[in-house]
């Protein structure tokens, strides 16, 4: 005979637009009837939510907070659910009113181009909405960057080899979306033969340098069609292949 309480469904973190209405859910099993009580924490202030004694906690997103649910039985056994984060974005993405949004990842902050000196810190940042909250993975030149699985990519001491084209994938159970690709330049280096999103004057200087030239265009954004991921990856892979064949590659996105 056991009086232990087991949580069978943990609440999940979400990243939502301001004003979005949703439910946090907690489910538990025990040998007696169970009682639920929700708590929230903003900054260092943790407080009980009055009247929040059901398995589901209705929320209208106003500010970023942490939440947990306490479950107890008639034998004074108590367990707490995982702490989950409700991240609230004050700027709703254009064309995505909260009432029509279905929880798929939506990029709300793209990284920006960086130029840093060798040995200095390198930081790229992105953000996405999603229910559940998206997970993140950064890529450089089409290759996965190990250990960079947060909204912020952080390299303490940048090396010349850290230069390249970066982008991040935000994914949850509904799908995945990718940020814009941005160039990162570390220290003094020669003009690369393969580049993306560079200025017209730089592209012109490379085109007049002679030799075999390959132009790759990966269109990732469509007005009346969901974004496609394959063109972006294909541009990176084909650029590498053509460079090995002696081509000067101009790779463009969107």
3D structure, described in words:
By secondary structure, this protein is mainly beta. The chain has three domains: 6-89, Immunoglobulin-like (Sandwich); 106-187, Immunoglobulin-like (Sandwich); 213-251, no CATH class. The protein is built from two helices and 22 strands. The protein has helices at 200-207, 230-244; strands spanning 6-9, 14-17, 21-25, 27-29, 34-42, 45-48, 56-60, 65-73, 78-80, 84-89, 106-109, 114-116, 122-125, 127-129, 135-140, 143-144, 152-155, 164-172, 175-178, 182-186, 213-218, 248-253. Strands 2, 5, 6, 8, 9 and 10 form a six-stranded mixed sheet that branches. Strands 12, 15, 16, 18, 19 and 20 form a six-stranded mixed sheet that branches. It is elongated, with a radius of gyration of 24 Å. The relative contact order is 0.13.
Write the layout of secondary structure elements.
Elements: E1 6-9, E2 14-17, E3 21-25, E4 27-29, E5 34-42, E6 45-48, E7 56-60, E8 65-73, E9 78-80, E10 84-89, E11 106-109, E12 114-116, E13 122-125, E14 127-129, E15 135-140, E16 143-144, E17 152-155, E18 164-172, E19 175-178, E20 182-186, H1 200-207, E21 213-218, H2 230-244, E22 248-253
Parallel strand pairs: 2-10, 12-20, 21-22
Antiparallel strand pairs: 1-4, 3-7, 5-6, 5-8, 8-9, 8-10, 11-14, 13-17, 15-16, 15-18, 18-19, 18-20
Summarize this structure briefly.
The protein has helices spanning 200-207, 230-244; strands spanning 6-9, 14-17, 21-25, 27-29, 34-42, 45-48, 56-60, 65-73, 78-80, 84-89, 106-109, 114-116, 122-125, 127-129, 135-140, 143-144, 152-155, 164-172, 175-178, 182-186, 213-218, 248-253. It has 254 residues and is mainly beta. The strands form seven sheets. Strands 2, 5, 6, 8, 9 and 10 form a six-stranded mixed sheet that branches.
């Amino acid at each position: 005979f056991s009086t232990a309480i087991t949580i069978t469904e943990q609440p999940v973190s979400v990243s939502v637009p301001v004003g979005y209405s949703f439910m946090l859910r907690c489910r538990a099993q025990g040998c007696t009837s169970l009682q639920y009580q929700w708590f929230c924490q903003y900054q260092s202030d943790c407080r009980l939510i009055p009247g929040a004694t059901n398995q589901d906690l209705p929320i209208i997103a106003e500010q970023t907070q942490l939440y947990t649910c306490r479950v107890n039985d008639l034998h004074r056994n108590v367990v707490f659910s995982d702490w989950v984060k409700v991240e609230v974005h004050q700027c709703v993405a254009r064309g995505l009113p909260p009432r029509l949004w279905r929880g798929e990842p939506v990029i709300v902050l793209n990284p920006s181009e960086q130029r840093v000196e060798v040995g200095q810190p390198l930081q790229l940042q992105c953000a996405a909405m999603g229910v559940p909250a998206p997970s993140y993975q950064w890529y450089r030149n089409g290759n996965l960057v190990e250990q960079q699985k947060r909204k912020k990519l952080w390299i303490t001491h940048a090396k010349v080899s850290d230069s390249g084209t970066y982008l991040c994938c935000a994914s949850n159970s509904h799908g995945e979306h990718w940020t814009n690709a941005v160039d990162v330049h570390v220290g003094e280096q020669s003009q690369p033969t393969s580049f993306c999103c560079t200025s017209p004057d730089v592209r012109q200087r490379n085109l007049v340098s002679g030799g075999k030239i390959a132009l790759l265009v990966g269109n990732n954004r469509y007005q009346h069609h969901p974004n496609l991921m394959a063109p972006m990856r294909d541009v990176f892979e084909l650029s590498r292949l053509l460079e090995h064949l002696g081509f000067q590659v101009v790779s463009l996105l969107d």
